[in-house]
Design brief:
The structure is a single chain. The chain has 2 domains: 124 residues, 3-Layer(aba) Sandwich (Rossmann fold); 103 residues, Four Helix Bundle (Hemerythrin (Met), subunit A), CATH 1.20.120. Helices cover 47% and strands 12% of the residues. The protein has 12 helices and 7 strands. Strand 3, helix 2 and strand 4 form a beta-alpha-beta unit. About 9% of the residues have low confidence.
Amino acid sequence: MGGKIFVESEVGSGSTFSFILQMPIGSKEKLSEQRSSEQIDGSTLNGLKILLVDDNIDNRIVARDTLESKATVTIVEATNGLEVVDILSKEDFDIVLMDVQMPVMNGYEATQKIRNTFSSPKKDIPIIALTASVVRSDLDKCRAAGMNDYVPKPFKTHQLITAIANLTGREIKYKPNDNPDRSGQVGQQTINKEHSSIVNPDGSGQVGEWSIVDLTYLEEFCEGDKTRMQKYTNIFLDSAPVLIEQLNAALSEHNFLKIANQIHGFKTKWIMMGMNGANEIATKIELDCRRELADYSSVKKETTMLMNIIAEAINELKKV
């Protein structure tokens, strides 16, 4: 692009990366013609029949709410890969939204079963992986299993609509620009005060003066719909105490796999509630638990820290 990039680095201090680009001057007219992803018209999916697969009922609720709020679609739900294979053998669908980690038969196995045992055109049905992992190796595994695309959890509405439209041959449509005169607004955002959790250096997990939760993401996801925001907040409040009980039980059993699976299944909720600190700790715990030789004392310390954060988040959300 005819630019220059610079690096300044000092050992033990850090690095600064910067660049210079010569860009043409824009215009008010061109700005008004731009379409944002938020303007995508979900009605492009009208008439589709969708098989939604996830063992977590809360994830299915969010996906169903999102699609039904934007389009007139028929949604059939399944909770594991074995159910998917059985349902597909009896009914026709336009697309499958497939969770990856599920009991009985996971998403990889179900996709391979569909590709290898059904005949065309059913074996060629588009399959989108819904995954909380964005690790390249996991995404490559989705492709290798025969999935056509993936959407990260928690997804943005336009991501899900675009992925479905692309794989079902639907033309992406946009809603009219409600505010064509956007001059002077480029690069400006309303930034709320950042909320974060503070963990003591000794790892005690005590919470500092700032908030654990930040509902900015949730408000954007729900497009300001207070009823939906409260619905998803209530889902968190109902499920969080159960997670604490399950983690305590898994710790007493020294069951690392159970800890990893429970934490992984809750990842969407950390992000929905803006609990970035909890998500970071949870990710580390999951990785540690999936190692061949996990250290119990380390896992116990970090899991206890995570449970303290969850408990504080419950207290905060009850006051919202």
